[in-house]
Specification:
The chain is mainly alpha-helical. The protein has one domain. The protein is 76% helix and 1% strand. The chain is built from 21 helices and two strands. Strands 1-2 form a two-stranded antiparallel sheet. A hairpin with a 2-residue loop joins β1 and β2. The chain is globular. The two termini are 24 Å apart.
Length: 519
């Protein structure tokens, strides 16, 4: 490795870091005494430009990643590139929503921290080494804690940040313990060698402990049950743009990492040496030994779907409703990660592993499709909530009464986004669930995936009820206040663009699907 290779591979992250430094320099130097709206517009414009530069950098990247002593440390292309593009687009959209949610005078610092956190998320998505993964997660997490606490005049913001920080510290400890055990068992921090060395030596009881610790640490990042307790308070107390960032960018980075880790630790392979008969014996043994590890993810998936959807039924705050909805969606996505291709109903494990590389790729693409479209829809949902909250002073369900009369465009955006989250065709949320469930019920599916897909469909029906509770107040129930709700033109344009993308990708889902396949 040389520094030229490091710079080439980390060029998108470097673009964000440079943009963050420029935002700070301009806001605290040149525009120190300017009006707040001028500083806001300038900071957002530079932040969006930084995201655009990051997308350009991903487009011109060449090579197969960063290698240290022959081991892949940072990946280019594939899952990493898809997740990084999603992170940049979602970050830019979140920045545009700042125009209708001014909660601090320190706007330059807020934008800079958001860009740095996004850079951490991009690092997480590309990492293939335990140490790099942990560094990227900490860069992302520290930024999220700061963003959550940025509304200094709000007691809920401070409380949410403290809870988020404490839970995050514990999850980081679990994750680091798990990584240390994986290193001790394999003698390497590179995921490729961790996979191969443990597969060849056989899984020990300590490996099960390590996997449980890793699932606990990453389960916190994606708000999966039982590691979800921070999410409702954080989504409710954080400033709306910060909540949108946590619900979208953080999820994309975390699920991309979970795809990487589970794809390595749950699919024995790597640098296994020996004759074909020896390799077949190793794979047969590890398939039976490691299958319970996937079951841990399945239990978390089922619990997340049930707890998230049922708890959302009792919420009177739309922010908390979206938080429990996020927990349920994490369950759907975990289902796609855990079941393919670990639960074959037929054939030898050796022949199964040899024939399901394509099946794993299909499952990964379905997960990425789901995560990206969910992140896009959630950013828009929090944008609408921010506008209503600013106008009414509350995010309660009754705050949305008569929104169709107060702002028909905003009501239309909310209708599209919430129906998409519920999975109603022809919106993109329907195709996200359809693709994911179809991947789970693939050619090698057994009874366990079938039962869990049935559970997911039943829970999706439950989610339709609480999403319609919001829509009913917007379109059916009478308004208490007929005064119009004004939206900043830039924020409204961003919300309309998100709604248009949700409808367009729903009508033409292959556009996004083929783009993902192209990496």
């Amino acid at each position: 490795m040389n520094y030229a290779d490091l710079f080439r591979v980390t060029l998108p992250e470097t673009a964000l870091e440079i943009a963050a430094l420029v935002v700070l320099a301009v806001d605290l130097g040149l525009l120190r005494k300017a009006a707040l709206n001028v500083r806001l517009a300038t900071a957002v414009a530079m932040g969006v430009a930084g995201c655009g530069a990051g997308l350009w950098a991903i487009g011109i990247q060449a090579g197969s990643g960063l290698y240290v002593d022959g081991n892949l440390v940072l990946a280019n292309g594939g899952t990493a590139a898809v997740a990084q593009c999603g992170i940049l687009v979602l970050t830019a959209l979140t920045l545009l929503l700042l125009f209708d949610s001014i909660f601090t005078k320190h706007i330059g610092e807020f934008v800079a921290v958001m860009l740095m956190a996004a850079a951490g998320g991009m690092l997480v998505a590309a990492a293939r080494d335990l140490l790099v993964i942990f560094i990227g997660l900490e860069l992302l997490s520290l930024g999220l804690y700061i963003l959550t606490a940025f509304a200094k005049s709000s007691g809920k913001s401070a409380e949410a940040a403290m809870k988020y920080y404490l839970f995050g510290g514990m999850s980081a400890a679990f994750l680091l313990f798990g990584f240390s055990y994986l290193y001790g068992l394999s003698g390497s921090t590179n995921l490729y060698w961790v996979q191969g060395n443990i597969a060849e030596a056989g899984a020990s009881p300590l490996f099960y402990v390590a996997w449980i610790l890793v699932v606990a640490g990453l389960g916190f990042k994606v708000a999966a049950v039982p590691f979800h307790l921070w999410a409702p308070d954080t989504y409710e107390g954080a400033p709306a743009p910060a909540a949108a960032f946590i619900a979208s960018v953080s999820k994309v980075a975390s699920f991309a990492l979970l795809l990487t880790v589970s794809g390595n630790l749950l699919m024995p392979g790597g640098p296994i040496s020996g004759q074909t008969a020896v390799v077949e014996r190793i794979l047969d043994e590890t398939y039976r030994t490691w299958q319970p590890l996937a079951m841990i993810l399945l239990v978390a998936a089922a619990a997340s779907m049930i707890v998230g959807n049922l708890a959302a039924l009792a919420q009177s705050s739309v922010r908390r409703l979206l938080a429990y909805s996020a927990i349920a969606h994490a369950g759907y996505i975990l289902l796609g990660i855990a079941t393919q291709p670990h639960f074959s109903g037929q054939g030898s494990p050796f022949h199964f592993f040899m024939s399901t590389t394509g099946s794993w790729r299909v499952s990964s693409q379905a997960v990425l499709f789901y995560v990206l479209t969910y992140g896009l829809t959630t950013v828009g949902a929090f944008g609408v909530v921010a506008v209503v909250e600013r106008a009414t002073g509350s995010d309660r369900l009754d705050s949305f009464l008569g929104l169709r009369k107060r702002n028909p465009l905003l009501a239309g955006v909310l209708l599209v986004l919430f129906l998409s989250l519920a999975g109603i065709p022809p919106l993109v949320g329907f195709w996200a669930k359809f693709n994911l469930f179809a991947a789970v019920l693939g050619e090698h599916a057994g009874a366990v995936p079938f039962a869990l897909v049935c559970l997911a469909i039943a829970m999706s029906a439950v989610s339709l009820y609480y999403y319609l509770q919001v829509v009913k107040r917007v379109y059916v129930m009478p308004a208490r206040d007929d005064s119009p709700i004004k939206v900043h033109p830039v924020a409204l344009a961003a919300l309309l663009a998100i709604a248009a993308a949700v409808v367009s990708l729903g009508c033409f889902p292959t556009l996004l699907g083929r783009w993902i396949e192209g990496f």
